């Protein structure tokens, strides 16, 4: 097992909250780096891929506004605009004025964007499976339960 002291995590201080956050961040970084390396062959970053996934599966045929996309992802409004600009330049998405809100655009995934998501999904999913394979199915279920509980309490408190 890794000695987390090398990362400045000192369990003897009794600050388990710190351990949880830092170890979770370290895990995220490892998975994100591996996903970044894989997705680069599709000219995607994890952020671009996640936006395409949200548009494809949440927006379906109707698309989503930029605000709706932002609510589903971990990126700021400014970052979403830049990422959407890049996805549009790549031909992965289209923007059209909203018929109900003149201030908003509806973002839709194009066929090439959808095909790219489908092509990239298998390898991306394999990375996620491998990263969680060190936990038993029961541990995965329990971890997901605890993390969802934590997430929901943070959202309610925000």
Task: Write a compact overview of the structure shown.
The protein is built from six helices and three strands, in the order ααβααββαα.
| Beta strand % | 5-15%
Q: Which CATH architecture is right?
A: Orthogonal Bundle
Shape: globular
CATH topology: Arc Repressor Mutant, subunit A
Helix/sheet category: mainly alpha
SS element count, helices: 6
Overall tally of domains: 1
Main sheet record: 3 strands, antiparallel
Distance between the termini: 35 Å
Count of strand segments:
3
Q: Report the CATH superfamily.
A: Winged helix-like DNA-binding domain superfamily/Winged helix DNA-binding domain
Helix content: 55-70%
Order of helices and strands: HHEHHEEHH
Average of pLDDT: 91
Strand order of the largest sheet: 1-3-2
Low-confidence segments, given as residue ranges, are none
Radius of gyration: 18 Å
User: Which CATH class applies here?
Assistant: Mainly Alpha
């Amino acid at each position: 097992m890794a000695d987390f002291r090398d990362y400045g995590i000192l369990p003897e201080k009794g600050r388990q909250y710190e351990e949880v956050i830092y170890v979770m961040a370290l895990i995220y970084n490892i998975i994100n780096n591996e996903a970044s390396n894989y997705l680069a062959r599709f000219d995607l970053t994890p952020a671009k891929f996640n936006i395409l996934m949200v548009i494809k599966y949440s927006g379906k045929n109707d698309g989503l506004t930029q605000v709706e996309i932002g609510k589903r992802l971990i990126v700021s409004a400014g970052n979403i605009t830049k990422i959407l600009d890049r996805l549009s330049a790549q031909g992965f998405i289209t923007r059209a004025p909203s018929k109900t809100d003149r201030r908003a655009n509806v973002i839709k995934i194009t066929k090439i964007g959808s095909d790219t998501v489908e092509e990239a999904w298998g390898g991306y999913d394999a990375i996620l499976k491998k990263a969680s394979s060190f936990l038993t199915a029961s541990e995965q279920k329990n971890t997901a339960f605890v993390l969802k509980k934590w997430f929901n309490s943070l959202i309610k408190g925000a």
